Amino acid sequence: MDFWTELGHGWQLAFSTLNLAMVCLGVLLGSLLGSLRGLRAIHGVALLLPLTYAFSLPIESTLILLLTAYYAAEFGWQRESTPTTETSAEQKHLAMAQTLSGIGSFFGGMTANIGMILSIILIKQVALRFGPAEYFVLIIFAFASLSIRAGSYPFRTIISTVLGIMMATIGIDSTTGILRFTMNIPQIFDGIEFTTVVVGLFVISKLFELLEAGQQPPKPQAKAEHPRLNRVSLLACRWAMLRSAVIGFIIGVLPGGGAILASNLSLKIEKTIFAGDRNRLRGRLKAVVAEETANSAAVGGAMVPLLALGIPGSGTAAILLGALLLHNITPGPGLFTQHADLIWALLMSMCLGNLLLLGLYWPLTRLLQRVREMPDWVFSPVLTVLAFIGVFSINESSLSLLIMLLLGGCAYLLERWHYPLPPLLLGFVLGEVMENALRRALAISGGSLDILYQGPICQTLWLLTFLVILVPLLLSWFFAGRTKGSK
Amino acid sequence: MSDRLFSLVLLLLGLIYGASARILTAPFSYDPLGPAPVPLFLAALLTILATLLVIHPQPIDLPRAATWKRFLWLAATLVFYQLTWLPLGFLLSTTISLYLLSRLFHCSWMQGLMTALILSVICYGVFNFLLNAPLPLGSIFSYGGN
Predict the structure, then answer these.
(1) Cβ-nearest to A381 among B3, B26, B102
(2) A64: left (phi over 0), alpha (psi -120 to 50) or beta
(3) Which residues contact residue A57 at a Cβ distance below 8 angstroms, ignoring those fewer than 6 apart?
C-alpha cells in the first residue's frame, strides 16, 4: 500500500460514525474522570479498558476511546480551591489562567501531534533493524529511564519495577512450556490477566485512598465569569507555551516520564530559569499555562515509543499497550506494515478530539464543576461496581475478582510506603517481552553475552541508558544550586 | 519501624520467590538460558534492595488506628461482594455490598440504600441487556447462572 492509500484508509476509519462517537464519548468521559477529585488519567483509562472489552468494540474504536479519554483528562486546568483572601484582580487573573490553559493544552496537543508524526517516521526507519538483542537493551533503557521519576525513592522505584517483572513471570514459560509460580491454580496458568492487574492496581487501591482521605466535597464555588480572551496575556505566554510543549513532548517520549512529571519539570524550568517577569500575577499565569501545555504534550509523546517500538511512554500508555495486546496486535515496526491505517486514524482522531476539547472547554468546565461536588458515598460504589463488572466480563471467573481485590490491597499498601505504582505496571507489561528477547538473543549467539553490546544500535542504547540515569542527577544538582542562589 | 517491617515482608517475598525459582528445570531445552536465571536474578535484586531498606528505614506517616479499622471493614465488604457475586447473583449481591460500602463513607441509610438499588438496577439493565455482557443471576436460585 502506498502512503496516500494508507492515509485515505486512516481518514475513513477516523471519520466513521462509530469512531466519531468514540471521540465525543472519550472527550466527555475523559474530562469527567479527569475532573473528579483525586482521579487522574490513569485511573480513568484503567476503568475504561475492561468496559471497552465488554462492549466488544473493534480495536481502532477502543484505542480512540482510551486515547481520547487520556488526553481529555489531562486537558485544561481545574482550580482546586480558591483561597478566599484573593482580591478581585487576582480572581480575574485566575479565570484568565483557566482560559489560557485551555488554549495551552490545545497547543501542546497539536504540537505533540506533529511531533508524533515526525518521530514515528524517524524511529520506524531504525526500528526495522531491531533484533532481540536490541529489544532487550531497549527495555533496559526503558527501565533505566524510570529513574527520572524516582526522585527521593530510587530503591523503591527499582523494587516496584522488580515486583512488576516478577508478576509477569507467573504462568507458562513461553520458551520451554513449563509452569512457573502458578501454585497449581489452573486459572493463572496463562499468567495473571492484564485487565485484572490494571483495575486492581488503580481502581481498587483508589477506594482505600478515598476512605483514608474521607474529605467532604468542596464547597460550591462562586461562578467564575468567562473572561474575554486578552491578546496581551496570550502573547505574554507564547514562549512559555512553546518551551513547555517541546519539553512535555520529550519527557512524554521517555518511558519513565508521563504527564505529571512533564508538567512539574516545565513548571520548575519556568520558575527557575525564565523567572525574569517582574509582574507577579503574570508570572503565575505563565506557570499555570506552562504546566498545562506540558502535560498535554506529554500524552502525545508517550504514544510515540508505544506505536513505534511497543514500549509505553507512561503508565497510562502501558494500559493502551495492554489494550492492543488483548486484541492480538503487537505494536512495533510491524504495526506500520500491517496496520498503518490504524496509526493515521489515531493521529487524525487526536486532532479532532483536541479541536472538540477546545470548543467545549468552557461549557464543560462549568458542567464538571457540578460533578466535582459528587459525594464519596456515591462515587466509590460507582467505581466498585464498574470494576467488578469489567473484570468479570473479561474473565468470567470470580477468582479473578479475588485476585483483583488482593492486588488492589497490596497496591494501596505499596503506595502508602512510597513504592510508586506506574513502574510496577511497566515492569509487568515489559517483563515477559524482556525475558523472551534476552533468551532469543542468547539462543542466536549460542549463549554468549557479547551480542548484547555489539552493533551500533545496542551501543547507542547503552549510552542513552547511562545518560538517562546521569542527566536527572546533574539536573537536580543544577536546580538545587539555582534555588539556593536565588534565596 | 513500620518501614522496616514492610521491607522485611518484601525480603521474605524475595527469598520465597528465589527458592521456588531454583527448582525450575526444563526437561530439555534449546535455549541456553533456561527458565530459572531471570527469576533468580530478580529475586536476588529484590532481596538485596529490601535488605538495604531494612538497614536504612525511612519514617512513614501512617493513618490512625481508626482508619485501619475502616480499612478492614472496606476489605471485608469487598471480599463479601466477591464471595456472593456468583451465589447471590448480581442484583442482590450488588445491592447489599454497595449499601454497606456507601455506609462506610458516611451517609444516611436511605441515601445508601437508594444509591445501591439504583446503581445495581441501572448497571444490570445496561450491561446485561444493552451490551450483552452476561452478569450472574445467582446460583442459589435454580433458574440459571453458574
Answers:
(1) B102
(2) alpha
(3) A22, A65
What value does the mean pLDDT take over residues B44-58? 93
Give the model's confidence band at A79: pLDDT under 50 very low, under 70 low, under 90 confident, else very high: low
Coil, strand or helix at A172:
strand
Q: How confident is the model at residue A82 (pLDDT cuts 50, 70, 90)?
A: very low
Say yes or no to pLDDT of A372 above 80: no
Report, as an integer, the average pLDDT of A175-200: 87
- Asked if A165 and B21 come within 8 Å (Cβ–Cβ), the reply is no
Q: Do A176 and B63 touch (CB under 8 A)?
A: no
Rounded to whole angstroms, the Cα distance separating A60 from A10 reads 10
Contacting A residues, span 350-379, partner chain B, CB-CB under 8 Å = 375-378
Name the residue among B24, B85, B115 with its Cβ closest to that of A377.
B115
Q: What is the pLDDT of residue B91?
A: 92
Mutate which of B5, B38, B41, B135 to disrupt the A interface (most A C-beta within 10 Å)?
A: B38
Cross-chain Cβ contact B24/A180 below 8 Å: yes
**How many CB atoms neighbour CB A465 within 10 A?**
19
Report pTM.
Answer: 0.89
| Length, in residues, of chain A | 487
pLDDT over threshold 90, residue B11: yes
Helical residues (DSSP H) of A128-153, grouped into ranges: 132-144, 147-150
Least confident piece of the model among A171-185, A269-283, A286-300: A269-283
β-partners of residue A180 are: A171
CA distance B114 to A388: 20
- Candidates B35, B39, B85; nearest CB to A401: B85
DSSP per residue, B100-113: HHHHHTS--HHHHH
Find the closest chain A residue to B39 by CA distance: A166
Q: How far is A258 from chain B (nearest CA, A)?
A: 25
